[in-house]
Structures are given as C-alpha cells and as structure tokens.
Amino acid sequence: MTDIDTHVTALRCDSLLRDQSFPTPRREGGVRLRQRIRRSATPDVVFALGAAVYLLLCAFAFFVVRPTTLLYFADYWEHRAIVNEIARHGLHPLDPIYGEQASSRQYTPWSSALGYIAQLGQIGSDTALALGAMAVSLVFIGGVHSFGRVFYRNPWAPAVLLATLLCAWGPLPLIWTGFYAFRSQLHGNYYPAELVFALTFVAWASVLRLLRGDGRAVPHLVSLFAIVACSVITHPLNAAFLVAGGLGFVVLEPGVAHSRRFGAAMVIVLAIAATSFWPYFNPLSLASAGLARGQATFNNFRFFYDPMFVIAMAGPTLFVLLGLPGLARNRSVRMPLIALALTFAAYVIGGIADISVSHRLLAYVFLMLHLLLVKAVLEAIAGRPPRGMDLLTPRAWRGAALGAALMILWQTAMALQQLTNPWASTDRYPVHQVEADTSTVVATLPPSARILGWESAALVMPSHGLYVVALPRPMPLSPSDAARQADYRRFFAPGTSTCRRLTIAHRWGATHVAYLTNELNKRTQRELVAFGRATSPIAPWRVIRVPAPRATGC
C-alpha cells in the first residue's frame, strides 16, 4: 500500500468516526420506550383500550349526563312510557299512549326485560333504560370483536373494525338512530334499533362459524335462532338488515358445503316463523307500515338525499373507493360488496318512490363501506394493499396513517363534547331539563287529564302517566291511529275553525290542549286563544283547558 492509499484510508476512517452516532442515555431511553410500546401494543391490548374508552364514555353518558333526556322531541319518552307500563302491570300491560284496548309494537322481549328490571329492582324507568343502554354497548363491543375475528381472520381486525365503525365518519356525524358514530351511540343506545344493530354482528359471527364449522355447532345454532327471533320482534326494520346480511353470507361465503348453507338458512327462516307466536303482536304484520309512503311518516327528511350531506357523513370512508377494483376480486368480501350495491340501489329507488323508511338504508350503505375499508386497511398493514391503493407512495400511506389517528382523536373529542356540552354541534331542538319541566306541567293537571298535544307535548306526556289524543309517531297496532293522526294534524293546522277544533277535541275526549311555543306556528297559537286563556306552568309550555261547546258558541 502506498503512502497515498494509507492517507486516503485514514481520512475515510476519520470521516466514519465523525459520522458515527454514539448512543446517549436519552436516545437509548427513547429506543427502549418505543420497543416496549411495540411489544405491549398487541391486537388484544389495542382493542381492549379502545373498548375501555368507549364503555367509559357510554357509562358517563347514560348514568350521569343522559343527553337523550335533554330533548323534548325524542323517542326516548315513548320507550319510557312502555317500560313504566310493563313495570306496573307485568305480563298484561295496557296501552299507555291512547288508553285503548290495543297492544303496542314496543311490547318486545327487550322492553319486557327492562320493565321487569325496574319492577323487581325497585328502580325508576330511567335507571332501567340506562342499564339497557349500557348492555347494548357491551353487546356491541362483544359483537364487533367476535365478527371481526371470524370474518377477517386477522388478529388486528377487531381493533381496526371498532375504530372504523366509531370514527370513520365526517367531521360532524349525524346524531340519529341508525347512525352508529361514536357520539351518536351516546344518544342512540337507549333504543331497540341499536340493540338489534349490535346483535347483528353477533348473529353474523354465528352464521360464519356455522358455515365454516368453527367449534361446536349447537351453541351457534341456538344463538342464531334466539338473536334472529328476538331482533325481528324488537325492531323489524333493523332485523331485516340482519337477516339479509346473514343470508348473504350463506349464499356468498366461498368454499362452504351445501348442507351447511341449507342448515344456517333454515335456522334463520324458522326463527322468523317463530316470531308469529309472540303474544302481543305479529311482527310480520308490520311490514306494510314500514313501506308507507310520505315524509310525514318515520321522519323521512329530504336532507338524507342531499349529495353533499351524504359525502359529509361518509368523510374518510370514501377512501375505500380507491381500492374497490382490487377488493372486487377478493372472494372473502363478496357479501359487503354486493350488499353495498344492492343497498345503495334500494336507498335511491326508495327515495324516488318516497318510501318512508328508505332513508334508514343510508346507514347500512355506510356499514358496507366500513366493512370494506377495514379489509383494505388490514391488507395494507400486511403489505399487500388492494389494487388501486397500491399506487400510493410510502409517504402517502404515512399521511393516511396520520390522518386516521387525527380522525380517531377528533371523533373521540366530539363524543366528549356530547357529554360536556350536549347537542352543541347539532341543529336539534333547544336543550331542556325535560323531566323536571314536564313534571311541573303535569302537577297542574288532574290525574284523569287527556292531552291533545302538539309534537313534543304529545311525546312526553305518556311517560308521565297521562294519555294523549295522538302521538306524532305511527302507532300501527292502534285501530284508531289513522283517524287520530288525521284529526291531530287538522286541529293544529292554521285556519281550522274553532268549532271544528272543538269537535275534534271532544271526539277523542281531550281535556286539555298543550304545546311548546317554540314548536307551534304563531298563527295557530293566536287562533287557539278562542279556546280560552292559555296558562304557562313553565316556559315554553302553554296549556289550555278544552271548553264546553256553549262556551265557544258552537
């Protein structure tokens, strides 16, 4: 080696020594911390942490804040009236809404269980409903974990599925029954519809295990039969999606023997048939009510069909559209792919035909997109993103991961806002202490009062033990509901004569008219002065005693 070579080698060694990063105590500590986090962040631990945060916020919502009870115009009050009635009369409940000799579609296994919990535990119906909401939340967590494991066959699936269902939404997800975003569940888990939504994942997991022969068949057969039967009785509309998805897996799951397909399908069919023996009503008879037309029924508001609203609700879920070309070739996700196409088509056609429940299909369009998004994310984590997504650069994937983390934090913050400042980011009705306000109003009325109330006034009264002339919700098992609904709208329509209003009130035995001043139009309020002086036990309530015909000159 020459002197020049020796000198060059020395310079290179010197350069390497200068560039060498020797570990420092701080750097070694950071490395150890990252390694410890990686070792600890197993799929089960991550899922458990997410479930714990979800359940903690649910418990605080249901037992402390109770955001649902801060709105007058909420279905909560109808369910509260039903639980009250079952707690009083057990197996022989009366109609707590109209006082008729008729059953109610709310007399379900779920409401019966809550009523007996209230009766045997000597607790109020609000506490029983809160316990029920917490049970729905636990079923949701269990269903997501079970379905995620069996459908995706990936240990990370439950954690990714939970995060996607709760947080893969636009910045201000709608708080509405059927929409299962994090903050919406803090309101909606009181309702039977959300129970059936949670049970859907349990039922689908049972179907898949039956088809694949995972474990003993008998427990899955019994579980599937019980869930389908209970769901069809409890909420027929959401149960239709549960059944359709289950049958979709039966038909589309690859590599399954025909005998297994037939067995799973027969369990579902027999469970549906068994519901006709439910003593209070036949849930299959409610199908015609579900296909009713017109926006006035079931709140089929037109904003559900605004393209900008749909895009805003979907938010980051639309990212999965990049991977649809690749997912379309994946046999394991044929059910959500085909269900997405069929559900979206039914949503559009139902909107055109003005079928009232068609807006509920939108939430299931999102559900299918979420199931596909989870598959795409799991494939990307495994290093094989679906075709279409494989065009993204590593920097783009890092940006997507950062965006997902920020999305989870944002949706959690929105859920927290629902607890610290309920309904702040919504266009809903003003917040009130409804229980206290309504109790104040009821204290001024005789126990035998029958209320002809507008919207919220009619909704809350049965939960406080008073009958109403009409509820601003369909009561399909009531033989007089159609006539009541027609008279209800006619009574509060501007321009109806005083004598006509008096005839309507006396036809249904109404003793008092009640409304909230922020809900009833001003013209009708002025016209109701002819009935007599309106009293205001508490703002914004107005109560008018129905006069005798001679007092109004009729």
UniProtKB/TrEMBL annotation:
Keywords, sorted A to Z: Membrane, Transmembrane, Transmembrane helix
Ranges annotated as spanning the membrane: 45-65, 128-147, 159-182, 194-211, 223-250, 262-281, 308-328, 335-355, 361-378
Superkingdom, taxonomy of origin: Bacteria
Protein name: Glycosyltransferase RgtA/B/C/D-like domain-containing protein
